[in-house]
Amino acid sequence: MTRPSAITLPGIVAHLERFLRPLAATAGEGVEIRQDRHGTIVSACEGRHAATITTMAGGDLEPILVEPAALAAADPSQPIKLYRLAETSAAIVAAGGELVNVPVRPGTLARSARDMADVVEAEIASGMTRTAFELDPRHLLAVADAIVATGAEKLTIVVAPRWNVLACSAETDELTATFLIAGDTFEEPKQSSGPANGDDPLAFTIGERKPRTPQPLRRRKGIDASGIPENEIPW
């Protein structure tokens, strides 16, 4: 197989090290790059964290693994040229313009590293994930930067599909912060056109009581009520 002199990668791969960094100092098993005539696929996995970046530009390259920290030296705003020098070495142009050596090795990510990513991606493709909407990623980035700046160790994310909103919240000893990121499309839930009570099972109306017709006093047979005042007879 003839190795290409340069592999063009999208600049976003420079962010993969930052994506994996909080989980492991080694940033996982590496970033897998594979290429065929259909395109180039860059994958990173660590535990249940995974990222897949695909471009239409293809080539002829057996799968290789690259340390994500090495790719982080490139300028993420520009396409990254990975120059394959030998089987275990390559070079990229760093953000400052200088060439930086990048260790590479033939291989693929472990099967276990891709299992969760494959399951989730298949579920999304099947349409089983019904709660989905588009949002401006700049809002998401601003929220992430703000939460990290607070020192919060956990971020709670909840999707409110009825309002098409992604709610992000975090709490520290000093503060509680909640950010609502609205989706690009929004339809206000329809209000009931019925009465104020609507279909509330706890709402009911008490009507007017109908007047009762006085019933004549009936005396029980076999009982002598003589001598008892009329108003004291219990029946």
Q: What labels would you give this structure?
A:
235 residues, DNA Polymerase III, Chain A, domain 2, alpha+beta, 11 strands, eight-stranded antiparallel sheet, three-stranded antiparallel sheet, 17% helix, 4 helices, 2 domains
What can you see in these coordinates?
This protein has 235 residues and is α+β, with helices and mostly antiparallel strands. The protein has two domains: 6-115, DNA Polymerase III, subunit A, domain 2 (DNA Polymerase III, Chain A, domain 2, Roll), CATH 3.10.150.10; 130-194, no CATH class. It has four helices and eleven strands, in the order E-H-E-E-E-E-H-E-E-E-H-H-E-E-E. The protein has helices spanning 16-20, 68-71, 111-126, 137-150, and strands at 6-9, 31-36, 39-46, 49-55, 61-66, 80-86, 89-93, 99-106, 156-160, 165-171, 176-182. The strands form two sheets. Strands 1-6-7-8-5-2-3-4 form an eight-stranded antiparallel sheet. The longest helix has 16 residues, at 111-126. The radius of gyration is 35 Å and the shape is elongated. 16% of the residues are buried.
List the helices and strands and how they pair.
Layout: E1 6-9, H1 16-20, E2 31-36, E3 39-46, E4 49-55, E5 61-66, H2 68-71, E6 80-86, E7 89-93, E8 99-106, H3 111-126, H4 137-150, E9 156-160, E10 165-171, E11 176-182
Antiparallel strand pairs: 1-6, 2-3, 2-5, 3-4, 5-8, 6-7, 7-8, 9-10, 10-11
Question: How many separate helices?
Answer: 4
Beta strands, count: 11
The N- and C-terminal alpha carbons lie at a distance of 111 Å
- The rounded Rg comes to 35 Å
Structural class: alpha+beta
Task: Kindly report the name of the CATH homologous superfamily of the largest domain.
Answer: DNA Polymerase III, subunit A, domain 2
Averaged pLDDT:
79
